[in-house]
Amino acid sequence: MDKKNAPAAVAPETVASEGGASKRGASVDWASLRADGPLHKIGDCLLANEEYMDTYSALRQVCRNWRSGLPEPDVHLHEWIMVEHVLPRAADFTFLHLRTSRYVTIDLTEVHARYYFVGFYRGVIVLAQKNQPHKIRLLNPLTKTLNTRFEAHMPYVILKSVAVMKSPTMVFVSKDYPAEIAWVDESTPTKGIDEDWGEGRFSTEHHSLRCITPFNGELYAIAVNNFEFGKLVCTNNVQLEQRASSVNMDTLFSFPELGNNKFYLVKSDGALLLVLLDNKHLEEGQPLVYRVDTESRSLHAVNNIGSRAFFVHYIRCISVDTRVHPTLRPGCIYYAFGLYQRVL
């Protein structure tokens, strides 16, 4: 997948801001189209397919009459990933649609001038204001929708990873020293620099936390100790509770029978999978992939991942369909450190 061959951006060069939206000249023909005409059906078709979310945003930008009667769409982009780029100076962000292998490059110069980039998670760019108190902002890069409802600031520590969940909208952050996951929602107030950050926190001594992953409305992570013995931790009642302060996180179950290893979480084809690093600690013939049964709190060996390929890393793991990306090997696990891979 060569970023140099990426097509030009389809999305308009406009970015929503807290003080209002910047505007771009639109052709009179498009701008004057009636709001009750065929645009509704065209917009609904584009909105129903996540691949065309950038085209939907471009249509909204030029069709002034139609746009004025519709709220900004509130969507999560599950099928897009951000291609790594140089920070902090780069203002062009490139995204890849996993299902179709389509690239889109978007100029976010205006955002880059006012916000720090914190992370990208499931189609949402997590930002922090450059001015004090560095309040959290969430940007959908394809629709240019900016969530400015957060009062909480970003923590004054080096973060390992970040995650965003909805219903209600919450931001989870993970850090190493100490190993901790903390979270806030839109009603969390701004706190002082010396106050504990977050409405809730989960910490574990002598462990590191990896691969925070949403699944079936909850958030999961792998916790490993210094000897690489693992356990699975998860939230409870994220979707049922109305406040982040009511959410808890605890150990779901441990798996010492897998020995000391490096573990990763991958969500693929509706299942949550535990992936092991193929190393000298594995017994001959031991499976590398296990399906996580969150109800019975157990693991079940998976011997074949079909046409999927996995990219695994401590921070994030993705599952890719090799029928869409023919340069990848089906049934292959790509470890995102060094040049290591394993075919099941």
UniProtKB/TrEMBL annotation:
Domain of life: Eukaryota
Limits of the KIB1-4 beta-propeller domain: 100-335
Pfam families noted in UniProt: Beta-prop_KIB1-4
Region described as Disordered: spans on this chain: 1-21
Protein name (Swiss-Prot/TrEMBL): KIB1-4 beta-propeller domain-containing protein
Protein species of origin: Lolium multiflorum
